[in-house]
Amino acid sequence: MKKLLVCLFLLVSSVAQATVNTTINSITYTGNGATTNFSFSFAYPGAASSAASDFSVTTVVSGVTTVLPTNSYAITFNSPVSPNPTGIGGSVLYPLSGPALVNGATLTITRTLPAIQGTSLSNQGILYPPTLEQEYDYLTMLIQQGLNSFNRAVVGPVTDPAGLNYTSLLRPHGPGNCSASTR
Fold first, then answer.
1. Please, are residues 129 and 85 in contact by the beta-carbon 8 Å criterion?
2. Do residues 139 and 131 lie in contact, with contact meaning Cβ atoms separated by under 8 Å?
3. pLDDT digits (tens, 9 = 90+) for 148-169
4. 137: pLDDT strictly greater than 60
5. Sequence-distant (≥ 6) Cβ neighbours of residue 133 within 8 angstroms
6. pLDDT-based confidence at 122, cuts 50/70/90?
7. 43 near 138, Cβ under 8 Å?
8. Is 12 within 8 Å of 128 (Cβ atoms)?
């Protein structure tokens, strides 16, 4: 029986389409004084009603970075396309009222997932392929999120040559930015 289930799983998973078909988890737009609807094309987990909490929207206006409160924008999600259980893409309406994002300002939409496992699979229980696919998609999105952070980090070489001063790689670039400290 186990061999049959494994064979069925392999058959179903081999014909399934990829649902996380992009490696990005954020997108940045530059304001033009007129645009208020900003689209994104990356995947999001779960139902649209709960997915809104898995996003952050940030603006940079005149050099000041602000993480926007969720009541200052609205997110609309594209519905998942069957048979894929994971939705892909949508749009952010910002601002909900008032003038559009000014020329030169930026708006960044980022998927920010909590590193949790929300699904529990019971021993000898029924195993639905869409459930597995959603969990694999979630793991893929978490990996993308980690890689996004890693790609913005200061990274030293694999070898640690004598005399390399890692603290000299960090320099303050303005108020509130991190600077290296010596111990």
1. no
2. no
3. 888 888 777 767 666 666 666 6
4. yes
5. 13, 16, 19, 84, 85, 86
6. confident
7. no
8. no
User: Domain boundaries in the chain?
Assistant: 29-114
Q: What are phi and psi of 34, to 5 degrees?
A: -130, -35
Write the DSSP assignment of 62-131 as a string of letters. Answer: TTEEEEPPGGG-EEEEPPPPTT--SEEEEEEE--SSSPPPPTT-EEEEEE---S-----PPTT----HHH
Q: Please state whether the peptide bond connecting residue 69 to the residue before it is cis, i.e. omega within 30 degrees of 0.
A: no
pTM of the model: 0.69
How many Cβ atoms sit within 10 Å of the Cβ of residue 95? 15
> What percent of the chain shows pLDDT beyond 90?
30
Cβ atoms within 10 Å, residue 109: 23
Tens of pLDDT, residue by residue over 58-101, are: 999 999 999 999 899 999 988 887 777 778 889 999 999 999 99
Q: Which DSSP letter does residue 168 get?
A: G
All residues at 6 or more sequence positions from 68 whose CB lies less than 8 Å from its CB, including other chains? 56, 57, 58, 59, 94
- 14-21, Cβ contacts within 8 angstroms, sequence gap of 24 or more: 16/83, 16/129, 16/133, 17/83, 17/84, 19/43, 19/80, 19/84, 19/85, 19/86, 19/88, 19/133, 19/137, 20/86, 20/137, 20/140, 20/141, 20/144, 21/88
